[in-house]
Amino acid sequence: MSALVSVVIPVYNGAATIGETLRSLVAQAANTPEFEIVVVDNGSVDATREVVRGFDVTLVEEATRGPAAARNRGLQHARGDIVAHCDADTVVTRRWLAELVAPLADPGVALVAGQSLSYRPETGAERYAAASGVWDAERAVTRELFPFAASLNMAVRRDDALAVGGWDATLMTAEDVDFSHRVLQARGGRIAYAPKAILFHKNRANDDALRRQAHSYGRGSAELYLRHPDVLAWTPRMSAALACTLALRVVAVPVLALGARVRLASRERAEHARYHRLWTLAYWRGFSETYREGRAVRRERCSCA
User: Fold this and answer.
1) Inter-residue contact 57 to 22 (CB < 8 Å)
2) Residue 91 phi/psi, 5° resolution?
3) Coil, strand, or helix at residue 7?
4) SS3 of residue 209 by DSSP
5) 126 and 203 Cβ atoms separated by less than 8 Å
6) Distances from the Cα of 20 to the Cαs of 15, 51, 173, 224, 237, in angstroms?
7) pLDDT in tens, 186-239
8) Cα(235)–Cα(231) distance, integer angstroms
9) How far apart are CA 57 and CA 84, in angstroms?
10) Domain 5-201 class?
11) Cβ atoms within 10 A of the Cβ of 233, count?
12) Pairing of β 190-201 and β 90-92
């Protein structure tokens, strides 16, 4: 493809990682389509802007917090027919961009999702995140409900992104699920999976960071249920199934910990169960808080109407 591509990277306090991200982009293979890099600083208070200014890129700022708002600012400044996205803590491979934009030569493709791999994990939190499949792009694009291209490794035509009003800046997470849904609804087509568009990303390194991430993902998921009740409807049967799942995951931790001590279960399996409980409880706590808040707001609006 010969069209200019704009690579948009939102960043917040990314001084420690964005230099490596930009170096990997500068090192793209020689036959990569012509591209520009637009970095959107989202209010960093570290040396992010100083690091970015060391590269031949466009640096803009967005005061409204959140990756969606930052991507919208990048979309406004992008000059390319295609907008590719990666995060400020990722490292792309040399053929990443060429492989990511190639499927858009097919007019039946609306979005492209690349393959995102974890850096080699060193902590328990990182090992869990790498094994959990949360960032499995192939699984995400083939979901029955709300298939999506994850924002850390995706490409879209700029006109299609603008036609749906860009990213929803009120969403802190799940903004890529919402964005993908609206693009597919507006123009039709499908999401292509590009397994050779590979980048590496850093997972949360400690328990507190992983717990916060799970909580925020749960909140984002609840927002989707609240915004799309015609597609996603929460039922009493789902509540009962969730209660069983939570109970099993809570019980599994001491059982497998005991099994590891007497060598009837591996330490790896016991560790995974502990982090699976951590993630699950935090995720569904975030979901339930947001879902209850949203339902309460809707009831109040209905009573005032």
Assistant:
1) yes
2) -125, 125
3) strand
4) helix
5) yes
6) 10, 10, 24, 34, 47
7) 999 999 999 999 999 999 999 999 999 999 999 999 999 999 888 888 888 999
8) 12
9) 15
10) alpha beta
11) 9
12) antiparallel
Distance CA 257, CA 14 (A): 37
In this prediction, residue 304 carries a pLDDT of 60
Task: Report domain extents, the chain.
Answer: 5-201, 207-304
198 closest CA partner among 29, 76, 46, 82: 29
With both helix axes pointing from N to C terminus, report the angle between 124-132 and 267-304 in degrees, rounded to the nearest 10.
Answer: 70
Contact 194, 111 (CB under 8 A): no
CA atoms within 13 A on the CB side of 44: 24
E-assigned strand segments in 54-189: 58-61, 82-86, 90-92, 109-118, 153-157
Residue 265 tokens, joined: 């279960």
- Residue-wise pLDDT for 108-117, tens only, equals 999 999 999 9
User: For residue 45, what are the contacts with CB-CB under 8 A and spacing of at least 6?
Assistant: 13
Q: Are 175 and 182 in contact (CB under 8 A)?
A: no
Hey, what are 305's tokens? 């109407």
How many helices (H) and strands (E) in the chain? 11, 8
The CB density around residue 92, as the number of other CB atoms within 10 Å, is 25
Would you say the C-alpha torsion 71, 231, 133, 142 has a positive or negative sign? negative
What is d(CA 87, CA 301) in angstroms, rounded to the nearest whole number? Answer: 38
Burial of 243 (0-12, 13-18, 19+ CB in 10 A): exposed
Beta strands in the chain, from DSSP E residues, in sequence order: 5-11, 35-41, 58-61, 82-86, 90-92, 109-118, 153-157, 190-201
Parts of the chain with a pLDDT under 70: 1-3, 298-305
Return d(Cα 293, Cα 217) in angstroms, integer.
16
112 touches 100 (CB < 8 A)? yes
Q: Give residue for tokens 């520009």.
A: 36
Residue with tokens 């040396």: 47
Hunting for tokens 């609840």 — which residue is that?
222
